């Protein structure tokens, strides 16, 4: 026999063995905990086969947890159970994914005779006692030493996602206790993010927060529905609940809207914006289609998801290359989403071996991306805060004197006008001080500008020390300073001026090693007539009083309209 002929025969035997599968499970102990074993399946394209017809078909071998994609809506599963123990066994056959099918029929035969049958219609689940928290439980008695063959007909809405577990009664109860606990934790985390971002939206009115919140809500609904949490918590099944799978379409819609908002594509990246818009339109069309025929609308969902992931990845890469600071973080989060969703798509199409990661890929991907999107929102807030602080610093620099860090003349006049209006509205007094360093030109000429700068900063410090929190201080230029005193009558203004004069007089500056300068200032005081004064006219009267103080010997305070000095 030639080698090619041998290879042909081996290949033929392999396929014959796969087609004529008759998986058997040997139960050799009263303690039964079977979650991974071999079963057979047959896809009923006609959707009309009876039990008698199905038992005559040829079954293909697969695992007890399997996915067969969207083209296997009605599928028969078969497993043969050999009770090799010396006692009768009472077992539970559990279908943990029964919550997402239209109906399930179960048949048990022994020695070619049907011994038990049960039907579970998810549209009339109240009429059956087989369903508990989304899990179909089929009690089955296995006589000692006998063989029982079980057939299960599963009619799915969109994807044939099947699992069969076999337990003794004790382990069956334990398996039901932990149903959907991991999904409840995932959903709880995402709901916390929803609540937080709603608060952010009400605080900032940023569209990205509301789009992100609705993206999370869509993800929560789909995860809770697809992984049995809705069934577990609310005992809710059937076509009306299956309509919630529309969230699988709304989720990418809100993700695209989030991208447009957070990256400001409409104004900054018009090319990328057009790509996102082009993707958004068919998704909205699918959503409308789903309102009338959700099963049909979900059939192209996997292909649409692949296109969406390709476009969004391409757009985010483009934004990253163009220097957008948020794009790299979006790429990381979306990379997780794409990886786990590709795994999930392969699982739903029956192209990969079922596992926790593949069966829960969409949920894991949504959660990881949700966390990264939350980080992006926080990081963008930080960028905006840094920008705001930078702008505030620039405004402050424009409003202050760089040497003394007091306000400059321009800011003084702008702020003084506001303070005068506020004082007039409250009928409060106001006064102004004009302050000038005595003999400042001689200090500069004799000791240089460095010592002169030291004199200016010393006076600025004295003014800050002697002022109140609501006083407005400014350096007008050279050695001239101004203080505007809200809520201060003439008496309080004179007292403040005297404190400043005394504080300066007690200061001394080291002009050179061993040589100290004593400082003095002359101060003019004027009350502000809020009914008739402008800030300029009040300041002019304070200046007149200042010149009077200078002429009367310096180092003194003089009140406008009064020749008394102190």
TrEMBL record:
PROSITE patterns: GGDEF. SMART domains: GGDEF (SM00267). InterPro entries: 7TMR_DISM_rcpt_extracell_dom1, 7TMR_DISM_rcpt_extracell_dom2, Diguanylate_Cyclase, GGDEF_dom, Nucleotide_cyclase, Rev_trsase/Diguanyl_cyclase. Residues 428-562 form the GGDEF domain. The keyword Transmembrane helix applies. It comes from Pseudomonas neustonica. This is diguanylate cyclase. Residues 1-21 form the signal peptide. Its EC number is 2.7.7.65. Keywords: Membrane, Signal, Transmembrane, Transmembrane helix. It catalyses: 2 GTP = 3',3'-c-di-GMP + 2 diphosphate. The chain crosses the membrane at residues 183-203, 210-234, 240-263, 275-292, 304-320, 329-348, 360-379. CDD domains: GGDEF (cd01949).
